[in-house]
Amino acid sequence: MIARLASLFPISLAFLAVAPAAAQEPSAVVIAVPPLTTPDGSDRGAGGPAAIAWQATQLIASDLRSTSELVPVGPNQKDYYSYPEVTAPTFSKWRNQGAKYVLTGFVRANSDGRFAVGCYVYDVSRGRELGRIGFAVNADDWRRAAHKCSGLAYTAATGAQAGIFDTQIAYVAESGAGMDKTKRIAVMDSDGTNQHFVTVGDSLVLTPRLSPKAGHLAYVSYVGGQPHIRVVDFDTNQQRPLVPTGGMTFAPRYSADGTRIVFSMQQGSNTDIFVVGADGGLPQRLTASPGVDTSASFAPDGNQIVFESDRSGAQQLYVMNADGTGQRRISFGGGWYADPVWSPDGQWIAFTRRIPGVGTRVGIMKPDGTGERLLSDGPADESPDWAPSSREIIFERTGVDGRPALARIAISGGEARRVVTPQDGSDPDWSGVID
Amino acid sequence: MRPSLIFIALALVATAASAQLPGLRKRTGPPAIQQAPLLVGIDALRADFLARSGADKVYFGGDAAVLTPQAQATLQAQAAWLRQHPEVVVRIEGYADSSDTRDHALAVGARRAEEVRSYLVLLGVPAVQLTTLSWGKEKTAVLGSAPAALALNRRAVTVLVR
Fold first, then answer.
1. Does A182 touch chain B (CB under 8 A)?
2. Distance from CA of A314 to the nearest CA of B (A)
3. ∠A124-A127-A132 over CA atoms, to 5°?
4. Of A110, A129, A158, which residue is a domain's last?
5. How close does chain A come to B9, measured CA to CA in Å?
6. Contact B101 A248 (CB under 8 A)
7. What is the reported pLDDT for B5?
8. What does the pLDDT look like over A297-319, one tens digit per residue?
9. Residue A139 shares a structural domain with residue A67
10. Residues 74..103 of A with a Cβ closer than 8 Å to B: which?
11. Are B140 and B109 in contact, with CB atoms under 8 Å apart?
12. What end-to-end distance do the CA atoms of chain A give, in Å?
């Protein structure tokens, strides 16, 4: 199963990292990514610092490209800096190439067998350092350090929270079709590497939901007959039902601080929303309408919950206080609104909208119901979840062949892009920032 | 004590009737020797249930869990059979179509199964014979997003489990 992420040890690079909060326009910005360097005389063989430096640079460029907000230039071997030049890059060269930022860095073998990875980000036009970050890592963990470098650059360029590249995505890996479909819960790093299966495919499974720091996972399983929520602890690899009930429980989602899980429970024809401590305890009922109340999601401050209900006759979005009081409808457009998810920055609610004769789309609206925008162009898009940056949405897109795949789209606009998975994928869930 | 004694007696008669499948004719003579008829007879029972009820499934419109007249007729036939076979336990499996969203589909499937269960109880089938399960939008019977395919997936299936 899943191995917990090893710790990264920050190392001092003489100055504290300084990340400017100034947000830029969300248009594409060019950032130069010359190869990370190594000290003279470093091992140039496979697995040595030079090889890792080159791979890390490619990963950083790939991370930044994946945002659709930054356009990385490089890495090109001809742009190689020597070790001392890392903190003194040539700005005029990058300025001439239209770059607004440049990221430099190094990989160095330490005497204890670990590697030191350091990165620096500069504003090219001002010739000024914007931030630096460094880690001592085991040879296997260089990817995480590279993701942190990507985050440093992304934060410097956009003002978004750091750490968004060092995250995980859970989803349902599918094979077969119709009655013979097999579904397994899978978890991967958000760059597509380190695929693991959490379940083996002997029971139908749905809707994996990672805890914010990806240490736990809640999902729906048909093991034993009735669909019910189970919780996996990746530290111990132990599993347990979320609540002891013979009835159907589903639609789990963690609060942003990881202490609570909001979920739905069916009783007869009625489905209501409940909340329970992530470690157990007595569930508390939050809704009591005689319809289907489900797909609940906490606001990042934990004080409010958005959910869907068909109490009006069709699925619409509602917001309530975390104790169930103050329920109010926020969506009023035609068709049905479903699958609401509150963004990590609290600014938006992502949703699936079913439009008769058109299909399903994913979109966003403000928590007060204003500012609605459909983001994807369908025809069958659903199950959105937020990237930890709050600037992108990952969702499930079913092709004309009926096969589901994962895709991501920036909320600032643009085309949806496929998230490559080894098998068909559905029900994506993106963790929060892990550390 | 008395009601349960009556129940057992009924069960024996019904078991005996089932045990002589697939002839399907009620026998007037003494019951056959009891030799775990349920274990050997589940497939035959299923075939008999399907033949006598006309259908093991009912269909629903759009987002609804409302039983159509046709669905009610099917369930009346199912109820008649189930009343004659009180030893049989069924699982009513509710489904939504693929145009629904995942979570809502689970609730809709449960609602459809519950609607069928309530109607069978109303028709005199003991509740102990009836369990329910929702498959949501999983286990698609007919692939595709055409309206006709979606309609065939909005269903509740009565499955004999023992």
1. no
2. 8
3. 85
4. A158
5. 31
6. no
7. 37
8. 999 999 999 999 999 999 999 99
9. yes
10. none
11. no
12. 21
Measured in residues, chain B has a length of 162
Nearest-Cα residue of chain A relative to residue B65? A269
Cβ-Cβ contacts under 8 Å for B14 (sequence gap 6 or more): B84, B85, B86, B87
Tens digit of pLDDT for each residue in B108-161? 999 999 999 999 999 999 999 999 999 999 998 888 888 898 999 999 999 999
Helix (H, G, I), strand (E, B) or coil at B130: strand
Q: Are residues A240 and A98 in the same domain?
A: no
Which residues on B lie below 8 Å from A181 (Cβ)?
Answer: 138-140
Number of domains in chain A: 2
Which architecture characterizes domain B38-160 according to CATH? 2-Layer Sandwich (3.30)
- Which candidate from A207, A226, A352 shows the least CB-CB separation from B133? A226
Angstrom distances, CA of residue A261 to CA of A72, A347, A385, B97, B104: 39, 21, 16, 28, 18
| Tokens standing for residue A223 | 């093991």
Which residues in A lie closer than 8 A to residue B145 (C-beta atoms)?
A: 380, 402
Judge: B139–A179 Cβ closer than 8 Å, yes or no: yes
- Is the distance from CB of A425 to CB of A362 less than 8 angstroms? no
Owner of token pair 């009820």: B53
* Amino acid identity for residue A376 in this structure: S
A309 in contact with chain B, both atoms CB, cutoff 8 A:
no
Taking contacts as CB-CB distances below 8 angstroms, the residues of chain B near A308 are 103-104
Q: What whole-number distance in Å separates Cα of residue A73 and Cα of residue A77?
A: 12
Flag whether the ipTM exceeds 0.90.
no
Residue A399 CA to residue A51 CA, distance in Å, equals 39
- Chain B positions touching A352 (Cβ under 8 A) are 101
- Length of chain A as a residue count: 435
CA distance linking residue A146 with residue A163, whole number of Å: 11
A59, A208: one domain: no
The answer to whether A223 contacts chain B (CB < 8 Å) is no
Q: Is the pTM of this model over 0.95?
A: no
Instruction: Measure the CA angle with vertex A429, ends A400 and A434; round to 5°.
Output: 150
Distance from B71 to chain A by nearest Cα, in Å? 18
Q: Which of A158, A179, A197 marks a domain boundary?
A: A158
A266/B134 Cβ within 8 A: yes
